[in-house]
Write a structure and sequence with these properties.
The chain has 361 residues and is mainly alpha-helical. It contains eight helices and no strands.
Amino acid sequence: MGMLLVFVVTAVDLSFKKYGSYIVEKLLDTEESMAVVVVELLECDGDRLMRLARNEFGSFVVVKALRVTQEMNRVDMFRGLVQKLMPLRHLLNAQLQSDLDGRLAELAQSQAEKQQLHLQSVEKNYNECSSSLTWHKERLRELETKISSLQEELSSCKDAAATTEEQYNAELSTANKLVDLYKESSEEWSRKAGELEGVVKALEARLIQEESEYNDRLEKEMSTNQQFVKENEDLKQKLEKLEAEIEKSRKTNELTLLPLSSFTGGADDSGTRNMIRGKPCNNSKVPTGVSGTALAASLLRDGWSLAKIYEKYQEAVDAMRHEQLGRKEAELILQRVLSELEEKAEFIQEERVMFCVRTYV
């Protein structure tokens, strides 16, 4: 409803401005005499108007007068309408002003809130920037400290590098001198190396020869030892058989046989048996009884004698001693070769020391 009233008031104002100005212009354009004539025409009666209308100029004046009258009536009507609508216009203006004030207040409040939020965000950004700036300053101080320490380390490294370079140059010059001296004495060293190589080859040939001889002797002794072990096993088997037979005959002839006297040393059968088994003989009295007699009888029946048994024992002992002597001889040979190698090594070491002394001098 308020919007409709505003539209009506606006239309009346526009109509008044349009037609009112037109009427005023027409009235101002009409001459004073014409205005007087129009007034008189309005006051005269109808007959006179008819007479004037017959005249050409009079008809024109009458038409003008009628138009002026219509325009004046229209102006009066618009003025009345405007006067009626003026209070409504003031009321609408007041409402619009109040609405405008409210909208302006809301706008101002919203602007203030936006400004407050903007200020808060700006303050937050400022705080963040300040904290970041503080952290960056601290980081910058740390980096400056590190840079200073790195510069010090760099300077110390440069000094150390210079010192090391000087040492390397000195060592390089010494190495160059050593190379020159080595080139000078290379022929002598090659000659000595050839001599040493010949000595080593001769020693290797001698060692191979000694090893082959030792292996041959060892094989012979091992074959002899195996034969002796085999014979010893045969004797053991025969001895066990004889003991079983003697034990059997002893049980049958227990009342008729008498024990023999015991005897000592290497002249009895127990000593012989101990020698056959490889056990050392003792000087204690060993009672033989029937076992010694049966053993002697069995050995005699098989063609064995105490001398033969002792001879076999001595052969085994001699073989073992010969093997031990062969081992000792091989050890002596190896020791002699080792001593010769050590002497050669000492000679080479002395030559190397002399060479180093000559090079440094």
